[in-house]
């Protein structure tokens, strides 16, 4: 062996040997008697990598494993037949462990590369086959993942972790192809399962006024699943630290785009005002699990720098304000929060395909979270060609355009145009509402007035609003009346919150039904509060009329529709189980009791509304 052998090693791009490593290999060529010492050093490096791995210092572990594997491969390339093969087992383990460290960091492509490096030397190395399968699963290449995992299972039958991984990948592949997700246990027990991405009958097209958008290629029924997308990055920070969660998300994005060709291409299509890329229409295959998408070998995509990543995050990330229900959003990401109480955390996340959904104040889609997976469903029956939209702002304000300035557009949807027409005719009611809410919020910490007085204040406000609706110069349909009422929806809600016990059950039922219709009018399918209202309404009707009554059966159909939009289709039996598990009759029934109570009892029956509405709406 001589200089020509070293030259061949240096020519191998996969080795990327450092200068000191090259000198070491040249020294070994000239001094083969030191081979035993070298093998011992290789093993020490691998074990050092293990120590860093066990401390969860994955970055250091990866650096050491890769150095170990590089030198081991270089040694195998230059050594004589007598010593060849002695470094191979160490290189296999170093590459395989490096793959696991990448898996821990969710760097799927790098994990796959390291696992395949190990398998190139040991095709039947079980751990490397398993890790290759997990990397492919992370990339949502489920058919390839299944092949790797089944190969591992053949070599080590009945291994529990491998059998579980095979079952999970089979389920994920089925999900990604059919859009069928078994979420019953999640809805009942809050244990989010693994969910693959799913892309239904949609296409990406340019629009006349809003850049790119997602459109249906087939008709969809109310509540039908359109898209499932997993968050590609999360940003968390303690409350009180201004925008730190956004900064953390931006850094996570730069790391992700640097480590993955696919993610780098996805970042290329995020809306950004720093680069004129908003008109580019990405290939849909870039977002479909197991698609045949491949990068253009003739074009190199640079990952975003931190400045561009911050811009992407500010415009495209979702936090609780855009999901519409802060509690549900944080619950959906509880696995990322760990043991940190949600109340102490600001959190935001980035989803790739949903970032292409344009805004409407009358959205065609409802959004819900299952763990980190975003489920997007049709809010009503939609014909083919309909643009899929969500609401970027969950607001009852007439000045919603002020809230959309961050995205640099003015919404011209039907509801916004309607607001322009009706605004002059309800300005006195809006001012009255603003004054009441300002006074109420200023006094809220002291709670000086009795609840009955608060109820009367909001009842007078609502009476004034209803008079304005009746006296408008134009005739409104029920949906348009709901749009006007939504401007004052906090007043309608607080009337329920402070409703005295002596108010009749029928009046209470009417209040709840009216508020539920207000949410339906603006397609507030992202707000979990409407499910609480629906369950409360059903309980009130049951107490008033009985379960066998026509009124109860009609109300149940309305309630089922609200749950269908938010959570997907479910049969009557499961709806009963869900209502029992998540919307306890024991907590709802006291609101509808018509017997006078002490102040203490009253506080008990209003708590359900205060905890779920005041905290998120005031």
UniProtKB/TrEMBL annotation:
Pfam families (alphabetical): SET, TPR_8
Regions annotated as coiled coil: none
Please name the SMART domains in this protein's record.
SET (SM00317), TPR (SM00028)
- SET domain ranges (all copies): 200-393
Kinase listed as a keyword:
no
Task: Tell me if Zinc is a UniProt keyword of this record.
Answer: no
Give UniProt keywords alphabetically: TPR repeat
Looking up InterPro entries in the UniProt record yields: Gramillin-biosynth_MTr, SET_dom, SET_dom_sf, TPR-like_helical_dom_sf, TPR_rpt
Superkingdom, natural source: Eukaryota
Q: Where are the TPR repeats?
A: 126-159
What's the protein called, per UniProt? SET domain-containing protein
